[in-house]
Design brief:
The structure is a homodimer. In chain A, strand 3, helix 4 and strand 4 form a beta-alpha-beta unit. By secondary structure, chain A is an alpha/beta fold. The first copy, chain A, has 17 helices and 14 strands. The termini of chain A are far apart. At the A-B interface, helix 1, helix 5, helix 6, helix 11 and strand 9 of A face helix 1, helix 5, helix 6, helix 11 and strand 9 of B.
Chain lengths: ~525, ~525
């Protein structure tokens, strides 16, 4: 043994643990130099102050002129006004009471029976959080079986409806959309309603909305007299909405422990409110991302939880990190093209997939191992004398960390004592705060998403174009090339080509004949 | 309209479509210069010749002295010997016949009832393919409900067993391990067997092995008289085993169309056997990866299928691409650290997650859009006049492609006519061949995985260490620090610290007290 080994010394020097949470973070395998923290002291201090201002109700999202209030959700006492505090508490109480009524049969489904299933309709921030929670905390004791519509794929929605099967009438449908204008969710809502109607069932008694006050969805839900409406607050962004009604309502309906989840987040918030960098796990995380990626996302973040229940955590973090940090301009308007790419699934599964590249291939990443010390809440099978499946899980994590380190690949290791709603809440809070800090270090607005609009606008333009192409085809009888159609309706021939191909694939009245080149493909509308 | 627009011209110039497959690939939004193909003609030609040799039975995996035969699986006529041809055909026939017997009730479960569920136990190449197929081709008409153990997480396995619930006795269990020595799968097998035993059920009548001849698993299955054994061939690697018994057996048991799946792959193989670069979709793909990443993986591959059923495709490609291409040395022994990082989920869902970063943030990727022209096999709901959910899906794809292009982000678009087993087979073949070509361009062995061993060895060392730590603790009564234990058993104190923490979290006889620093933490074995 060598107790003077530089790694053991380095490990101890930077090891941070929160005794009461059973949490620890090990940054010793990121190769920052000894003076790194000194050099980062001033920006880190600014980041702490920005976070404090945000928590106090500052307009932390200047482009949208909004407060950023997700930390208040788990500690309403922090909210800057009594009105906000009251609406957080009232919403949470209403959710818990509603779930109790659903579970107890005080509220019955449109069929007059108790609810058996839950269909959540949302996308992005209105789906990823509920999906993570539903999968991570699933148990046999769940009150409802949970399903999702998280896209506008008609085949995908049919698949989910087939899985719900004859339980449709006993399915509570929660439609989530902050603006109420998200087309994927609107389409999902219509498809779900049509499914009820096809079965001869009134849908309104099974439908619940989670949306901003007076949004289009709010109006529809009111007009159609849906079972219930829950508010989304203006000061909550989609990717940090998991502790608002967006996350809590599905969670409570599934029968999960909402209070522990919030308590875990509140506890991590509290720990990471310190401006002593070395005691602040979220700041350490942000600083390690900064160091590893040279402050410009030069390395991808590979997230490797050794825990099946955390399979969706990397997908959740993809949104939280990439949508928050992937920005063109900084707060001074300078072009910065910031961001950190995030991917991963779970260990040790991924060791049999891409860990080959992590160890031997292009060194363009840092790994984050997430370790759960207690392998299982239930007794384990002894697979060899004195050895249990969870020992292998731990062995593979440590072994892979070592194998990467040997090859100069950097990693962070986060350890939690066990897995439950409290610890999941704490992990989410840790990353929310790390993202906030990193946003400050990079001097960007981590709370808007201006780039998302462009894709939506371009998509709307395609749908408009589709209408024009269809009208033009309908008005002509001879085969038309995409160039001819484009000329007639003043559009781009390439876009016309794809729209026409799409129409021909889905509309039996439109006939497509391939040519040697796309400009020679023809399309004909059959009036017969 | 501007028909002379450079984009329409460029699109047409490089657009490749396979009329009979309804397949096309659009590489016009990768910004390679006009002379790129000329410059790559010689290496591309070499890659075509290497592929032809591989298909003819060359030792294409020199480190392991193995042939690489996955292309023979869908076209046994290609196999280099009659013996290989015969074992491919015999295995396939045996799988189809076995599935028929299971579905028809000729073979009954240990309970004497027909089988209702399927539990596949495997990891990496023995899980990702079956998981992709099971999810992508699921329908209400499936013969069996499919579940997976794909890790050694005891809690994760308990969760799956809880989902199987009272169907356990009617669950066919397929254990897949080529070497038969993969610990995760061995543990999964033992956990599943113990579950049967707990219910008072004989497990052997429900257990099937897919493994190499005379492997440890083969011996166990023989000794325990399992229901059936199917072979894994020496000349098939895990990440290309989806068309061997590994993929076909679960697929056939689920009731899916094995023949179409193989036919789709065979058709794509055939098309991409041409050495005319511009007509070879797999070569175009490899060349675009090469161009975008400057031949050294400088850009990540973001895979965005606009199709819910292809959600797992990016995870499948993560293994196929990263384990094949992520290599330290080239074939001449030169250090190259090759590879391409792969991530993605599905559109338009991901537009509400990380597409913000793709458009505005760090430009370290190229996107691959996968478009399915026919939105659904079933009639769609009209959500607006003349507009269907699939029109939105198509609109979002085209819109996002445009939004990325506007900002100088490169993309490839692959279009398939509809989604089914045939097209899934074709897509997989396309990527298998692109990976093979890229391996040749990079002059690496794309068919071994030397880096995986290191993590396994390090993990084994941790388990051995755990035994030593436990023995030492057991032999002492006073609290011990990890340094003291490490000194006594001649081990690294940091590893001892983590092993001891893990043991304390899982073994109620081991008591842990935290100190100010890890070196002051103590561990005590309680003999009471």
């Amino acid at each position: 043994m060598n107790t003077t080994s530089s790694l053991w010394a380095r490990f101890q020097k930077y090891f941070l643990h929160y005794e009461d949470l059973g949490f620890s973070i090990d940054i010793s395998r990121i190769d920052f130099p000894e003076d790194f923290f000194t050099g980062m002291a001033i920006p880190a201090d600014s980041a702490c102050r920005a976070m404090a201002q945000l928590e106090n109700g500052a307009i932390a999202n200047p482009d949208e002129n909004r407060m950023v209030g997700h930390y208040w959700l788990r500690n309403p006492g922090l909210a800057p006004t009594e009105a906000i505090r009251d609406e957080i508490n009232a919403t949470r109480d209403a959710i818990v009471a509603f779930a109790k009524e659903v579970h107890g049969g005080t509220i019955l489904a449109t069929t007059g029976r108790t609810f058996s299933d839950l269909l959540v309709i949302g996308i992005g921030g209105s789906a990823l959080g509920p999906q993570l929670v539903a999968d991570a905390l699933w148990s046999q004791a769940d009150a409802l079986r949970v399903h999702f519509f998280d896209n506008t794929d008609p085949d995908g929605m049919d698949k989910v409806l087939a899985q719900i099967g004859s339980n449709l009438g006993q399915t509570l449908v929660v439609v989530i959309s902050k603006s109420g204008g998200t087309k994927e969710s609107r389409n999902g809502m219509l498809v779900a309603q049509a499914a009820f109607t096809r079965e001869g069932l009134a849908f309104a008694p099974n439908f619940v909305a989670v949306t901003g006050k007076d949004s289009d969805l709010d109006k529809v839900a009111t007009a159609e007299v849906w079972l219930r409406r829950f508010p989304m607050f203006d000061w909550i962004g989609g990717r940090t909405s998991i502790m608002s009604a967006v996350g809590l309502l599905p969670m409570a309906l599934q029968g999960l422990d909402v209070s522990s989840f919030l308590a875990g987040a509140a506890a991590m918030d509290e720990k990471t409110r310190t401006d002593d960098i070395r005691l602040n796990a979220a700041m350490l995380l942000a600083l390690m991302w900064w160091y590893a990626g040279q402050g410009r996302g030069a390395k991808d973040m590979v997230v490797l939880p050794y825990k099946d229940r955390l399979l969706l955590f990397s997908r959740y973090l993809q949104q939280l990190v990439m949508e928050s940090l992937g920005k063109e301009f900084d707060l001074d308007g300078k072009t910065v093209n910031q961001g950190i790419a995030v991917y991963g699934n779970k260990g040790s599964t991924d060791q049999h997939a891409y860990v080959q590249q992590l160890r031997d291939g292009v060194n363009n990443f840092f790994a984050t191992f997430i370790e759960v010390r207690k392998s299982s809440p239930s007794p384990q099978l002894e697979v060899e004398a004195g050895v249990y499946p969870g020992d292998y899980l731990q062995g593979f994590l440590r072994g892979t960390r070592t194998a990467l380190h040997e090859k100069g690949r950097e990693s962070i290791t986060i350890s939690i004592p066990e897995f439950n709603a409290f610890q999941l809440g704490a992990l989410i809070a840790l990353y929310e705060r790390a993202v906030g800090f990193y946003g400050s270090l990079a001097n960007i607005n981590a709370y808007h998403q201006p780039g998302v609009e462009a894709g939506k606008k371009a998509a709307t333009a395609i749908l408009t174009l589709q209408g024009h192409v269809l009208l033009h085809m309908h008005a002509t009888t001879s085969p038309q090339t995409s160039e001819e159609i484009a000329l007639a309706i003043n559009a781009d021939p390439e876009e016309v080509f794809h729209v026409a191909r799409h129409l021909a694939a889905n509309n039996p009245k439109i006939h497509h004949v391939s040519g040697r080149s796309p400009s020679l493909d023809t399309f004909t509308f059959s009036h017969s």
